[in-house]
Specification:
This protein is α+β, with helices and mostly antiparallel strands. Helices cover about 30% and strands about 40% of the residues.
Amino acid sequence: MKCFRLIVLLVIMPFAFTVTVNAQDRTFLELDVQIQSAINNGEWIRVLELAKSQIKSDVDRPDGFYYSALAFYHLGKNKMAKPYMTHLRKMDPTELDAKVKELNDKLNSGKSNGIKETFFLNYDPRKGIKLYDRSFISFSYDSKIPFGIAVGSINHHGIATYLQIRGNTEIFTKTGEITVRNNGNIYGTQNKDSESTGNIRKGTAELVMGVTWKIHQPLWMYAGAGLNHSREFWEVTVFEENGSSLGQFWARNSEINLNQSVLESGIILDFKGLNFRGGTSMVGFDFSKLRYNIGVGISFKRK
């Protein structure tokens, strides 16, 4: 039985090897045809992708390395082409010898083909178009801090930054020299009688800096951290000596003047001109102070 299995194995192995080699050759040649088509159309990012597959198909053939170096040269990335040329010198290029020599001379001349690096970074090989990074300005709203503005960028590769400022109208409450404390004591009324009306304003302002990064167009994520500043104002009535009212004034609560950290995260949807955002904010790592916010704005391409 063992002898029979050995005989079968010896018969099948050469056949299996031949089938594998033939399939590998077909794949390599199909890739070569696609590469030539991409070269004729000037689709150098596509050439890079196909050359990578060709190297995986047969790492012992020089073609994939040559096409990779050629594509990088035409993309203006000479330094990225040279490692492939170094590998080619260790191989036998055969029919590619003249082309390899010509490309090597161009690379050693120090001249770039002139295509900007941004083209290489922002070219979408599936659509054949250049992708522009964009800047945006958005107006945001949440229930406690209704007025906000964010400015920043969204990139197709890597991270970008943004800055957001938020606040409510109460933060701009005008006060004089009158102050109050949590126990209700009022100071600065020049020895006149005064009392609180019970009306209280809470002013808040935030400054946040963060980063954005692409998930899949048109979706980006953002996350940031910053400072939350809050104040409290009490309405106070001041009386004359005869008991008549001098009017109502806003007094700052000297015990409520807080600076706390704020964290935020969310998503940005950008439709090449129309920019939407939505996310959450949290003050002082306190989940009871979790807020939701939304925003809308415009974006414009940045060359």
